[in-house]
Amino acid sequence: MNDFGTWVIVVVAFGAAALVYRLKALKKRKENEKWNTPAEPVFSPRVPPKPLVVSAPPPDPSPPYDPNDNAGEAPADAVRLGAAYVVDGDTIVVQKTQIRLFGVDAPEMNHPFGKKAKWALVRLCKGHKVRAELISQDAHGRTVARCYLPDGRDLSAEMVMLGLAIDWPKYSGGVYAALETPDARKKMWLADARQKGRMHVWEAFDARQGANGS
Question: For the chain, which ranges sit under pLDDT 50?
Fold first, then answer.
């Protein structure tokens, strides 16, 4: 092979090598561009976000019913009939109306026998529609009512006979006094003190509870 032939082979080989190098460089650049390019978004039908459900805060508890705080007679539609939600031993809610049982006084929930009185009233009302015949309404919109079970039993009388409420003669006229159990006023000494206007007894009891952290 002469010098010319050798030169041609060298040139061709060099050109081929350069072409291969350029092709590899171009391929590598395309691969880099592919990986560095943000992915195309995947489009899907727009689904509106679910609304955030926030539970409403419970209403502020109203002060205990005060029979002296009487704002007037019961409303014209003076009967409520339905399932009863029991608040405590002498307070229920029927058809969104808070009702105080007529003529009796049961212990508050934080007083001795308070929880027992509540659950006794729960057992009486469970599974029944209570008929509440409204008598009067206080300034906070709560009512006093004579409340009856479907068989005619008076809830006030039932609670007194169970020994978990006492008659309040100032408002009942003494109709439930004869139904009180012998130890009722001893057990419910705080309710008895309230009826007699001795609220300092309540205050002393509440102060002791506060000091004990209960």
Answer: 35, 37-63, 71
